[in-house]
Design goal:
Number of helices: 9
CATH class of the largest domain: Alpha Beta
Shape: globular
Strand order of the largest sheet: 3-2-1-4-7
Radius of gyration: 19 Å
Strand content: 15-25%
Largest sheet: 5 strands, mixed
CATH architecture of the largest domain: 2-Layer Sandwich
Helix content: 25-40%
CATH topology of the largest domain: Nucleotidyltransferase, domain 5
Structural class: alpha/beta
Oligomer: single chain
C-alpha cells in the first residue's frame, strides 16, 4: 500500500492506493495556519488514522510547496513560508519513525499524470500548475527530473517572454523579483488583467465565467491571459519539447484554454508546426496527492 500526502497552504490531504492505483482511502484536514509543529502532528495523525482504519502499513510520499535545498537540506521557495528553513523531511520521518519520500507538488502532479493520467505512456511530460501560484514539474521516462539545484520546472519564476510595453516592469513577486510569469498567470494575474481593462474587481473564476457568458471585457482579459500563457509555455517547449503539457490548478478548469492555447502556442514556439498535446489533468486536484503516493515503487515499505 502507498500513502500519498499533499501538504497545501489551506488543507492537508492523504490518499491510500493499492498496487494498481485504486483508491483505498482518502481524507482531508485543514492545515494548521502558521504552525509548523502542528503541521507535523496533523500529517502524523492522518497517516496513523488511515493505517489503523485499513489495518495495513504503507510507504509514505509527500507533495509540498517549494523544495529541499541541495545546499542546506532545508525547505526553500515555499509560498507557505512557515515551511521555509525547516528540515521538513527529517522532522516527518522522526515523527513517523520511518522513511519518507518528498517532492515538490508540481513534480508530483507531473508524475501522477505520467503514470496513469492524461499523459500516461508519454516519454516527456511537463505539468504546469495554474492557480494561486504557478508551478511546473518535469517527468522523463517515468522519472521526475529535479535538477542539480532541485528547481527543474520552475517556469513561473522566469520573466514573461516577449513582454509588451504595458507589461513592463511587471508586478513584484514574492520571490523578490518583478515581472515573473507567476504574477501574470496566477489567479490574481487574470483578475488584474480584467481590472486593467474595466477598473472593476472580479475574481479569476468569475472572469472566466463572465467570458463564457459573452461579456466582452472579460473575454478580452481572458484573451490577454491566454496569450501570456502561450508565451510562457512556448519558452518551455523551446527548451524541453515535451510530448504532453498537462495543466492543473484551478485555472486549468477554464474550458476555453484548450480551444485557443494550441494555436497561440504554435505562434510563439520555434518550429514550423507544434504537435505538443495540451491536456487537462485527468486526476484534477487529486494529482498531487496521487503523485506523492507514486514516489514509492510497488511493494516497497521500509
Amino acid at each position: 500500500m502507498r500513502l500519498g500526502i499533499d501538504l497545501g497552504g489551506t488543507k492537508i490531504e492523504i490518499i491510500a492506493l493499492d498496487d494498481d492505483g485504486a483508491t483505498l482511502a482518502r481524507e482531508r484536514v485543514a492545515t494548521p495556519s502558521g504552525d509548523y509543529a502542528g503541521t507535523i502532528r496533523a500529517i502524523g495523525d492522518l497517516v496513523k488514522g488511515v493505517e489503523a482504519r485499513l489495518g495495513r502499513t504503507g510507504s509514505v510520499g509527500l507533495a509540498t510547496p517549494g523544495a529541499l535545498s541541495a545546499k542546506t537540506g532545508l525547505m526553500k521557495n515555499a509560498n507557505s513560508v512557515v515551511l521555509n528553513g525547516r528540515p521538513l523531511d527529517r522532522d516527518i520521518e522522526a515523527h513517523l519513525r520511518r522513511p519518507v519520500r518528498m517532492e515538490n507538488d508540481a513534480n508530483c502532479l507531473a508524475l501522477s499524470e505520467a503514470v496513469d493520467g492524461a499523459a500516461a505512456g508519454a516519454a516527456v511530460v511537463f505539468a504546469a500548475i495554474l492557480g494561486t501560484g504557478v508551478g511546473g514539474g518535469l517527468v522523463v521516462g517515468g522519472e521526475i527530473v529535479t535538477g542539480r539545484n532541485r528547481i527543474a520546472g520552475e517556469w513561473g519564476h522566469n520573466p514573461l517572454p516577449w513582454p509588451q510595453r504595458d507589461e513592463l516592469p511587471g508586478e513584484p513577486c514574492y520571490c523578490g523579483k518583478a515581472g515573473c510569469i507567476e504574477t501574470f498567470l496566477s489567479g490574481s494575474g487574470l483578475a488584474r488583467a480584467y481590472t486593467a481593462r474595466t477598473g472593476r474587481t472580479l475574481a479569476a473564476h468569475d472572469v472566466a465565467a463572465a467570458a463564457a457568458h459573452g461579456d466582452a471585457a472579460a473575454q478580452a482579459a481572458l484573451d490577454v491571459w491566454q496569450d501570456r500563457l502561450a508565451r510562457g509555455l512556448a519558452s518551455v517547449v523551446n527548451i524541453v519539447d515535451p510530448d504532453v503539457i498537462v495543466l492543473g490548478g484551478g485555472l486549468s478548469n477554464i474550458d476555453a484554454v484548450y480551444e485557443g492555447l494550441p494555436g497561440r502556442l504554435a505562434r510563439y514556439a520555434f518550429s514550423d508546426a507544434i504537435e505538443t498535446r495540451i491536456a487537462r489533468a485527468q486526476h484534477g486536484d487529486s494529482s498531487g496527492v496521487r503523485g506523492a503516493a507514486w514516489l514509492w515503487p510497488a511493494h516497497k515499505v521500509e
